[in-house]
Amino acid sequence: AQSVTQLGSHVSVSEGALVLLRCNYSSSVPPYLFWYVQYPNQGLQLLLKYTTGATLVKGINGFEAEFKKSETSFHLTKPSAHMSDAAEYFCAVSGNFNKFYFGSGTKLNVKP
Amino acid sequence: EAGVVQSPRYKIIEKKQPVAFWCNPISGHNTLYWYLQNLGQGPELLIRYENEEAVDDSQLPKDRFSAERLKGVDSTLKIQPAELGDSAVYLCASSYVPTDTQYFGPGTRLTVL
Q1: Which of A29, B1, B62, B79 could cross-link to A95 by cystine, CB 3.0-4.6 Å?
Q2: What are the pLDDT digits (tens) for B11-36?
Q3: Which chain A residues contact residue B43 at CB under 8 A?
Q4: 3-state class (DSSP) for residue A96
């Protein structure tokens, strides 16, 4: 079975500051991990995914995430926040691509 | 390339009424998903189709929910009768194959009064 925990339902950063959104997962099999972004009244859009290989994954809009097996984490980072990054972010895990388990989401607020 | 299309975008109904949601996936995508997203929560899978076959409907409340994907293209999700607790956003997603990226539609926001 798989599950995801996202720490912090709301995160607020200043424009230009580091963005760090936390995700911890539980999986009984080697996990595939994903980050999605959801803008108001829109569907989810894939930011990045980890399947195999390099543990540091780069995605769109300057985001990246690092798979740390020992910590069962897949935190999302961006060096410098932009106003347009304000949205809700979801971490997801899948064991075999047959079923995806999403976290409860983190709303990112970017202050000018 | 057109994205996943869902209609209606918003629906308000009285409890005990029926309601239906429609989804047209990206052309050529064989896998189609219906998700339920409650306020403040992440999406939860209701049903997954491979072409016209429902390969995972274990989370679909079959006493009131039904779905179909005739001809393996567009899909309809139905609730009959609707209950107050069904108020949520219903998301449709599609992918070429299960291991490929899922593309989500904008969702249908259902309000049951």
Answers
A1: A29
A2: 999 999 999 999 999 999 999 999 99
A3: 44, 90, 100, 102
A4: coil
